[in-house]
Amino acid sequence: MNACDVGRERVHAHFDEIPDAPASESLRLHLQTCRGCRELFDDLAILRDTLRARPRPELPADDLEAVWNRTVRTSRGGWLDGRKRAAVAAILVTGVSLSTLWLLRGPSTPPGPTAAEIARAEAQADLVLSYAARALAATRTAAMHDVIGKKVSPAVRGNVPADKRKP
Amino acid sequence: MTTVEFEAAVREHKDRVYGYARSLLRDSEDARDAAQECLVKLWQHKDHVEPGLGCRNWLLRAAHNLCIDRIRRRTVRAEVVPEESFEPTDARPGPERLAASSHAAGLLEKALLGLSDRDRAIVLLREVEGLAYEEIASILGMNLGTLKATLHRARERLRRDLIRQEVTP
Description:
The complex is a heterodimer.
Chain A: H1 5-17, H2 25-33, H3 35-52, H4 61-70, H5 72-77, H6 82-105, H7 115-148, H8 154-157
Chain B: H1 3-25, H2 28-44, H3 53-73, H4 95-113, H5 117-128, H6 133-140, H7 144-164
Helix pairs in contact in B: 1-2, 1-3, 2-3, 4-7, 5-7
């Protein structure tokens, strides 16, 4: 016997929403009076139970072993796992970047003088030195004149008698 | 998901994935390959998968997609899974009902094979795996209305097939 249209919807809705719950009061009353819907309800309950009772086949041990070999064991056997590799790579990249930055922006050593510049500097230094030598010579001459002219003390001249020298 | 969580997830869901693949593919060798591939895929994406129900749904979605790809690729073979491999093992109240269901179990498998791949997937995900409609809709990429209507039709089809074989009381 076929279920009525209204009853069919309600029976399906019952299994859709709360499949384990007892039929609601209104549905229960309907099932008492509609044989088609009652048969549908009972059949769907058996269908549900049979489907749920289906034993779940086990994945063969060989396949599980293959999964471990292709996943966890590969990682453990390797040098580092993925996360560690990523961390090491990040550190290396950071180090290289910082080094490059330092080389590009750090205090640079000025380039050395050329041979011509060195020669010119030596010539200038010799010139300055000659001026200084001349100045020293002039000073010496003036000092000699002072000593000769007795403008300075005998002590400065270095010819103080020994008995007159201060202790 | 850490490596430890991955190992726990594999132990918890491996049979679910294999069973689902076997029901869809109707070929145990193909299902073994698909299950392996699915679990390895989880390893490759473990950093983006949360343990728990999220992982279960991710695996079922991956298994479903892998199976559909395989079904599309291969020439469909008319292989029927042996009835005895699906003999129910649990005990439920009511010996008469148990007997009736036990008798029905093998024929139910044949009736399931009569459904389209999509309808069979819906029935399995809902009635066997106990997923919510929203979860099934997400896995299969369907809207809820279509999903419910399809499930109702699939149930009625299974019922008709079983009545035809006189296995329902």
